[in-house]
Design brief:
Two copies of one chain form a homodimer. Chain A is α/β, with parallel strands linked by helices. Helices cover about 50% and strands about 10% of the residues of chain A. The mean pLDDT of chain A is about 90.
Chain lengths: ~350, ~350
């Protein structure tokens, strides 16, 4: 055990109340100080992660190596008294398991072979995909086995539209191609979304079976969607995903994170059936508390840039987020993933600020 | 006169009522069919524009050539019965006139020398900048002289934050650099914003003096701004700009277009003093009508992608926008500028759909 480990555990368990703080907030409880975790908390800003990552040739191989992926999850927990661990994986393991060729190009993000229309029906085998994803569930089991009782374990997946966006466009940059597909061949896109709903529901259910305490659905491409497309490609498939998840017997809370959805977050929160909402950097806490269903847990939304700057800007920014959500069921997080140039010392300062107010 | 010109004029003046339709809507009037113009309606999707543009070596030279810039403005009006002409210029003429080196790199967008701190005070001379911008006002005069009575002439400028973003970062891609500057040296950024408020107010006032009937302020970098920065760098400077404009005796209506601002549009609409709001593609008309001050004219917000597709997708999309704003003071437009791959035939079909419902 790390010399700081005892102190860290004391900080986490400080309240003395029953249950993991993150799960209590997800059930609508308002805590005096919010639980905290950080999107991409296991990641490149940590030197020990970069060292670990170097042991595997490709990023996907790393995701599929339970010992390595689980170790990545534990790294930030040894440094900071965070309230949650999140599975180390990628939203593109789903298309990968469905038989698409996925590769990650250094500095450019993921690449997939662009999808052609008939493909949608040809390759879709959710059951086989889940079998191929067995290493991911083994990772969840390993994390669960090593996790302190107070720390919640979050499973996750990309939302159907976000994953479809990658599949339809091949790579990150050309978002228009996916939107164009919805206009030009809506039936094909619906079929693809249905396939992703089914596969993603099973993928999330398997993570819960392996030990995940709650789930997050990343809708990373909600930005700039015209309302009719937002309804068709984001709200409806997420609704279906939630219904299918519940149908599979999964009852754990689900956080939806529709990044860049602007005021459309309200429709998303009301209609999809998710239990909590992740808010991106641009959302005003006061607006969210008024516009979203009362009592719904809210997660977010510090500007990640502040973790590269530190100092007064960071403390002040953190205090503004804390004040904005005071009195609401709030999970402290960033409004976007932590960046590789963030300083771990700033992360430590942030966690202390959030947990102890100093 | 183009053979279609008479028919086009009849379509425009069809209502028989007094005043330019666009200005009537900006004053809060609800018309049976909304007036329409298209952001970047003078632009690369028109072959005659590409031909005209080839006569000038650099894009900024083109902007500073009144005969060429005015001709670009008239080109789309000869094709389509649009209700407004917009000055052909660029938001970066302001930093250019303030002495920054601006250049446009084909396919990459604008480049400016990055700003260093003391620069902010060193080069700021609003009066000299306005003198340098004389060709822009001559362009406005030329457009005004050739414009049909029913067509409104829109002047424009970039909002202080959007222009500052370009000045602070040097080029389009690296948005973080400007946001970082607000955190790291807020006083410098405030000084820069104040300089831009003063210069932009005078620039807009000069356009009105030359004949502009109304104005649009482009806030193209409102996206992803944390609420405290949105308030400091967007709302406050726009407030100051509006107050200064009114102080200079400018009374024409002003459309604010805070692109990507999401739910923060509501704060922008309430606090800045603009008369009307341009809505980007992602804004739900129903939400805007409820969240923004009652009776405020709303402009937007068709997905520009539909002008590359045409057909049923375009008609259906246009009808959804029309229905969404029916009963409100509405100016039909896109939610973002028209793209170079748009088909002029689709633009013609859109204008007919909006004006005649067929």
């Amino acid at each position: 055990m790390n010399p700081n480990q005892k102190e860290i555990e004391e900080k986490r368990g400080g309240s003395g109340k029953v249950g993991k703080p993150l799960l209590r907030v997800l059930q609508g409880e308002v805590l005096e100080r919010p639980p905290i975790w950080i999107m991409r908390q296991a990641g490149r800003y940590l030197p020990e992660y970069r060292q670990l990552r170097a042991r595997s040739k490709s990023f996907l191989d790393f995701c599929y190596a339970p010992a390595l992926a689980a170790e990545a999850v534990f790294q930030p927990l040894r440094r900071f008294p965070l309230d949650a661990a999140i599975l180390f994986s990628d939203i593109l393991v789903v298309p990968d398991a469905l038989g698409r060729s996925v590769s990650f190009v250094e500095g450019e993000g993921p690449r997939l072979d662009p999808l052609i229309a008939e493909d949608v029906w040809r390759f879709g085998e959710p059951e086989k995909a889940i079998q191929r994803l067995a290493p991911v569930y083994e990772t969840v089991e390993r994390i669960k086995a090593g996790l302190d009782d107070d720390i919640a374990l979050i499973g996750f997946a990309g939302a159907p539209w976000t994953v479809a966006t990658y599949m339809l466009q091949g790579e990150g940059g050309e978002k228009d191609r996916a939107r164009k597909a919805v206009y030009q061949r809506p039936a094909d896109v619906d079929a693809l979304l249905d396939l992703l709903v089914e596969t993603t529901a099973r993928h999330l259910a398997a993570q819960v079976e392996a030990g995940a305490d709650c789930l997050q659905i990343f809708e990373s491409w909600a930005e700039g969607m015209p309302p009719p497309l937002f309804e068709r490609a984001i709200v409806r498939p997420t609704q279906k995903l939630m219904a299918r998840l519940r149908g599979l017997g999964v009852s754990v809370p689900v956080i939806g994170f529709p990044r860049g959805a602007g005021a459309q977050i309200a429709a998303y929160a009301r209609a999809t059936g998710v239990d909590a909402i992740g808010l991106d950097t641009s959302v005003d806490p006061a607006w969210a508390r008024e516009a979203l269903p009362s009592g719904m847990a809210l997660q977010g939304n510090l500007d990640p840039l502040l973790l590269t700057l530190g100092g007064d800007a960071l403390s002040h920014g953190a205090d503004q987020v804390l004040a904005g959500f005071r009195g609401a069921p709030h999970i402290f997080n960033l409004g976007h993933g932590i960046t590789p140039d963030a300083d771990p010392a700033h992360v430590a300062a942030l966690v202390t600020r959030v947990k102890d107010g100093v």
